[in-house]
Amino acid sequence: MTRPHPLDPLTADELTAGREILAAEGLLTATTRFPAVLPVEPEKGDAAPDRRVQYTLLDTATGQARDVVVSLAKREVVSTEDCGEGQPAYLFEEYDLAASITKASPEWHTAMERRGLADRIEHAFCAPLAPGFFGRPDETGRVIRSLTFLRDDASDSPWAHPVEGLIVHIDLTEQRVIRVEDEGDVPVPPEHGRYGDGPARTTLKPIEITQPEGPSFTVDGNEVTWEGWKLRVGFNAREGLTLHRISFQDRSVLHRASVPEMVVPYGDTAPGRFWISYFDAGEYLLGKNGNDLRLGCDCLGVIHYFPAFVADDHGHPVEIPRAICMHEEDYGILWKHTDLDGRAEVRRSRRLVISSISTIGNYDYGFFWYLYLDGTVELEAKATGIVFAGAAPAGTKHPHANEIAPGLFAPVHQHLFCARLDVAIDGKRNSLVEVDVERVPMGEQNPYGNAFTWKETPLRTELEARRFADPAKARVWEIRSAERTNRLGTPTAYQLVPRPSATLMAQPESTVHQRATFATRHLWATPYRADERFPAGDRPNAHPGGAGLPAWTAADRDLTDTDLVLWHVFGPTHIPRPEDWPVMPVDYSGFSLRPYGFLDRNPALDLPSGATDDHCSAHDH
Question: Which residues form the active site (predicted)?
Answer without folding.
Answer: 280, 363
